Amino acid sequence: MTSSQSPTYIYILLTNTGTVFTRLIKCFTGAPYNHASISLDPQLAELYSFGRKEARNPLNAGFVREDVYYGTYRYFPNTTCELLRLEVTARQKEAVKAVIDYFNRNKERYSYNLLGLLGVLLKRDLQIENACFCSQFVAEVLSKGGAGLWNDRPSALVTPQDFRQHGRLETVYEGRLHDYPELDKHKLYLAQANRYHARTAALKVN
Known about the structure:
With 206 residues, this protein is of the alpha+beta class. Helices cover 35% and strands 26% of the residues. It has one domain (8-204): Alpha-Beta Complex (endopeptidase fold (from Nostoc punctiforme)), CATH 3.90.1720. The chain is built from six helices and eight strands; from the N terminus they run βαββββαβαβααβα. The protein has a six-stranded antiparallel beta sheet. A two-stranded parallel ribbon has the order 6-7. Helix 2 (90-105) packs across helix 4. The chain is globular and about 50 Å long.
């Protein structure tokens, strides 16, 4: 990269929603964040991971495009996070985007690698065809895009905490997700208002 070129980054978002499932994982890992997502922009407009497809059903999980305004996160407004960035070349970023696009086009073929989480605890590489858990997906996308971070471990043994500890990753923000300054405040307000009205309507029905 020449001095005339602006740096190019890929972003990795680590989160803790405080759900029963994440608290259970935290009991084993002791880490502050137990979910990882990958984004191509600092505004988190394109945010991808493997996780729950429905906010209230953690068992229905797979490849997802996450939405910090209207997706699962709107049900957990006190979600805490750490946003990391990785400097890459423009070619690597395009390659990573192509890998994500492949997952997106074939998302119905993929499922959540729940068994792989057990493999992490046992330090065994339990890769299952067409299945990932969140940090495995992020590590795999980076690797296939030519921006891999580890040569000494498979993606199925990478945890969210490993990203925090990697020397090539820089912390951009840490705190409450909805306080992240790059988010659209108007969209946040509308999402919160919609959630309030939905809850009010549900109470009236009951």
